Amino acid sequence: MDPCHNLSTPHLSALCDIADLAALRVSHPAFTVCSGSCSHVPTPWNRHEIPKCRGENIWSVNYSLFSGDAALGVVNADAWILKLGENDITDLQADALNLVPNVESILLEHNAIKTIHPQAFSGAVHLRLLNLERNHITKLPPRGFKDLLNLRFLMLGQNQIGLLKADMFAGMKNLSDLDLPLNSLTSLPPNAFKHLTSLKVLDLSLNVIQRMSPKAFTGLQQLMFLNLDNNSLKTIPAGAFKPLRSLEMLVLDNNLLSSLKPSALDGLDNLQELYLRKNNLEQLLPDVFSNMPKLSQLALSGNRLKTVNGNMFIHMPNLRKLHLHDNPWRCDCNLSSLVQWLKQTKAALSPRTAMRCLSPPELQNKILSSLGDDKLLCHV
């Protein structure tokens, strides 16, 4: 995924400055090489006539693909892109890229890749972007990316990866964006990302993650954006996010969370945006968000909240936007502190008219902020 792609939640615009992909693609001649099935490749090759190799039934990426007549003298190019998407490639063989040491971007999306040789990327020391989206990859080779010392973007979305191990990402000290949405991950083991010390963006959305180790995010001190949208998390272990001291946006929408303990959110001192929409949250402890002084946007819509202590929001001085609609609010005396806060706050609410009582029957469908204390009663 492009770091500026559209998400189900707003993305931090600052993350678009991590690297300018457009500049990467046009700052050098966009050379492409392919196998003999590209019949329209000019001979001799004029660098300004780029051969198109998408959909050319290439079935393997190996050393011979870039040697002999197929390479057409491109090996000495200063920097270039390999566009091999939408073919029938099933494997990436050892040393496939040794003859193209200056390649900066490899696009292998929408193929049928199942296996990656541990030495497939040997020699590609200048590679900055690798797109392997929409393939059939079920596992990543141990230390398979260790030669990609300068890789910044790794796109692995829409595969069938079911397991992560720490050694899978060894050597990738400069990676800034790791995209793993739409895979088959069920858990996050300890130290899964410990080698990714420069990572800024981690997208784990649309998996089936049920469990995470308290040490799953060890080493990610520079992470700014974590997307866990659309998984199956029921609980978050205490201290799981503690290593994420630079995190600014956390997306936990569309999970199965029924409760949150303050210890689950420890360490998020720099968090600015927290999304918890469409979970099963039934209550919020008054101090659950107390350790997030920079929080400016909080989304709690689509849960099972019946009452919330409004005083919890008084201690969020930077709160600018709050989403509380689509909850089954019980409008009685226990909700009075929230109603009072709603009337006084300058924060943008999502929208006020969508925050309505479900019970008691006489107040059903009433707008929360329209209620006076004389309506918010608790019957003995």
UniProtKB/TrEMBL annotation:
Q: Please give the Pfam families that the UniProt record associates with this protein.
A: LRR_8
* Record has Nucleus as a keyword: no
Where does the LRRCT domain start and stop, copy by copy? 327-379
Q: Which keywords, in A-to-Z order, does the entry hold?
A: Glycoprotein, Leucine-rich repeat, Repeat, Signal
- Note the InterPro entries from the entry: Cys-rich_flank_reg_C, Leu-rich_rpt, Leu-rich_rpt_typical-subtyp
Q: What is this protein called?
A: Leucine-rich repeat-containing protein 15-like
Organism name: Solea senegalensis
